[in-house]
Amino acid sequence: DRKQAEQQLKESRENLRVLAEMVPQMVWTTRPDGQHEYVNQRWCDYLGVTVEHMQSDRWAPLPFIHPDDRDGTRTLWQHALETGDMYEHEERFRNSQTGEYRWFLARAMPVLNDIGQIVKWFGTCTDIEDQKRIEEALRQSQERIRALIDSNIIGITSNEGEEEVLVEANEAYLHMTGYTQEDVRSRTLTRARTTPPEQAPLFERVLQELAERGQHTPIETELVCKDGSRLPIFGGGVLFQDHPRQIVSFVLDNSARKELEQRKDAFI
């Protein structure tokens, strides 16, 4: 029975080792005090170290971590060892072949015995460099869009639902029309309320074009301002999503051009 148990244990460990060598992560285990017992070949190849080197010091990985990430790694890992909480941290490791740093998500969980004591830690490091680059590109894109929205160059609005309720408007639009952010938050400003009634057929054609093409040809129309006056504008829009319908539009103040045309007509 003892021999069979030893053989089963040996096979179980071998299966775990094979699995750890096959997964696309860097895999490692440590003793309860954080001293490394095992690291897979992917870890050794990436960092350019040996298993013996990793087993020499529980802080052996620190020199391979980006200097800006080391303090966070040390603090969180020490906290995990003292409390038994799961360890999770995004950190950059240096590739031994290229010298470049790549982002990894490091995670470790304690393995407990029958009485709740930590017998070892099981951890992985997953390459998330591509994900971080996508997130950074998205962040920069959002910043550029926000810079446009926050500028005073062009009015930008977002309308939702069948009644085309105004749910977002930048300061340029509010300045043009006299409405406030409180008016927008009240959800009472609809397309029917902010455009002249006689322009309804024009906007019906706009909605049809949006449904067919996802955007509409820029139009000249008017907006009904908060004080009841009418502002000539040049506008366009795109269908951002269909269910519920959301339309993002741009608005340019066209009053100067209209005034110039009236002066020309009066002169003629």
Strand and helix map with partners:
Elements: H1 2-22, E1 26-30, E2 36-39, H2 41-47, H3 51-55, H4 67-83, E3 87-94, E4 101-112, E5 118-127, H5 129-150, E6 155-160, E7 165-169, H6 171-177, H7 181-185, H8 191-194, H9 200-213, E8 215-224, E9 230-241, E10 246-253, H10 255-267
What does this 3D model show about the protein?
With 268 residues, the protein is an alpha+beta fold. A hairpin with a 4-residue loop joins β9 and β10. Helix content is 43%, strand content 30%. The longest helix has 22 residues. The protein contains 10 helices and 10 strands. The strands form 2 sheets. A 5-stranded antiparallel sheet has the order 2-1-5-4-3, with helices on both faces. It has a 5-stranded antiparallel sheet with strand order 7-6-10-9-8, sandwiched between helices. The model has no long low-confidence stretch (mean pLDDT 89).
The secondary-structure element order is HEEHHHEEEHEEHHHHEEEH
Radius of gyration equals: 31 Å
How much of the sequence is in beta strands?
25-35%
What strand order characterises the main sheet?
2-1-5-4-3
Main sheet properties = 5 strands, antiparallel
Write out key terms for the chains shown.
alpha+beta, 5-stranded antiparallel sheet, single chain, 43% helix, 268 residues
Quick summary:
By secondary structure, the protein is an alpha+beta fold.
